[in-house]
Every structure is written in C-alpha cells, then in structure tokens.
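We treat protein structure as text, and this decision shapes the records that our systems exchange. The remainder of this section carries one protein's record, kept here as part of the documentation:
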Amino acid sequence: MEKKSISALAGVLLVSVILPATVSYGQSEKAVIDRYLRELPKGGEAGLRSSSPQKYRMTAIYTNRGLYGNFTGKQKITGDYTRGPEDGYVSWNNVFIAGSNSLSEPFPDGAKQEYMENMRYVPSSEMLKEEAFENFPSSPENVFARNLVWDMMTIEMFAWNYSDSLKLNRKFIIKELNGEFNMGDIGTYNHAAIELCWTGISEFNGRLCAVLEYRAIDNIIEISMAQIKTRGTEQYWGTTWINLTNKQIEYAEMYGGTIQEIEVSGMKDKFLIKTIRELWVERIN
C-alpha cells in the first residue's frame, strides 16, 4: 500500500513538472511565431536608406565547359559595392577581372577595370539602357562587369520590393518581371516565371535574419556584340539573409547555369559552351 502511494505521488509530481514546462514551451513557441514568422518587416524605400554606408564585396566565378564536360576556362570578377547613406546612390570600386585556363590553379590577380572606378548611379530600370554603360569598353569582357551591376540590383530587388506579398513557405510569382527586356543594347533576356519564397529566420553575422530564396528557370538569353554572338538558356537561383532589425542585406549567394551557342568573329564554326556561375556578396568594413 505504501509503495502504491509513493508511486502515485511520484506520478503526480512528474506531471506537475512536465505540464508547466510543456505549456511554457508552447507559449514561447507561439510568441516566436507571432513575433517573427507572421510577416516580414516592411522593406521598399525604407530598406534603401541607412544612417551609414553599407559596404559589400561581390565575387563571381564563371566556369566554362564543353557540352560533354571538358573544362575550357574560368573567370573571376570581384568588386566593392557601397550603398548610401540616404541619397539612394550606390557606387563600385576595385573591380577586377581575372581569367585562367587551369581548373586546379588559383586565379591570378587580374586586371583592374578602371572604367568602373567610382561608378555611381541610382539603381533603377535606367541601368538597363545603353547610356548607363557608355564609358564601358566594347570588349566582350565588359559583360562580366555589367553583370555585377545587374546581379546586385536583382539581389536587392528580391530582398526589399516584395516583403508585403510574402508569406512564410509560400511561393510568390513575380509576374511583372516575366517577358523580354533589353540588356543595355548588347542583347536581350527573356524571363520565365521567377519564384520568391520566405523560408524562415536564421542567424548571420550575429544578427537575426529573414531567409529569402528565389529561382528562375528556362530563361532565354541572347547577346550580340562586335566580336561575339551567343544564344541559349539560363537558370539561376539563390538565397539572401536580410537583417530583421535594419532590413539591410547581411549575406547573399547566387548560382546559375547557361548553355549557349557561341559565334566568334574570325572563327568558321560555332560551338556550345556550358557556364556555371557562383556568386556571393559579403559585408566588408
């Protein structure tokens, strides 16, 4: 009888310990969900302003292979990007382009792109016009430099322009960006559906961040320059970590792949190239 009483008392004590802990955990979980996962902090113009400059380094690596996977070359492009403060302008400095014909060896230092030093502009659709790049050289390499501008605009646009429309773990189609547009008069790009999704919260650089993922599949790209013409398809996808306190980007990465038919001036035959692009954006002090 005494043993049964002790056992019953132990059971009551156990329940009395577990139940408050479970209720407390449930309440804490709900508080976290209500505070951080119901909706994103509003971005838009507020995300473009800050009391101090926001500085980043973008790095992009392009790896080229033939149709059957044989390595044919690689390029590395780096640039320092500064946003603000407050006036809406951004700028580029220290842009370098390096190339290598060795898959295993590191990149050389590369050549500084002086035409991009202190390049200053307000990100907008105006940066898709030919006039925005009138100081750029005519060589095919300048496409890589233009991509720094366009890729950063894309990352920031996805990070800030659609926060009002995003719900946790629900895909959002950016319909107004579908269709063909001109790329600074060097070619055209035709977007298929662009999907954007807020997938949760995480920590980056010691700061609580919203995590946004995006992808765009089966896009058509065509470039026509004096020395080279290309036509093919591209897909890209990426993830961005956005500071929940000040809405600034803490880190971003993008991956992409193209398969293109290449026609080079002076070469008799066209050829196919598969290009893999790896890109990341890091904060710098």
Q: What stands out?
A: Residues 1-38 form one domain. Residues 2-37 form the longest helix (36 residues).
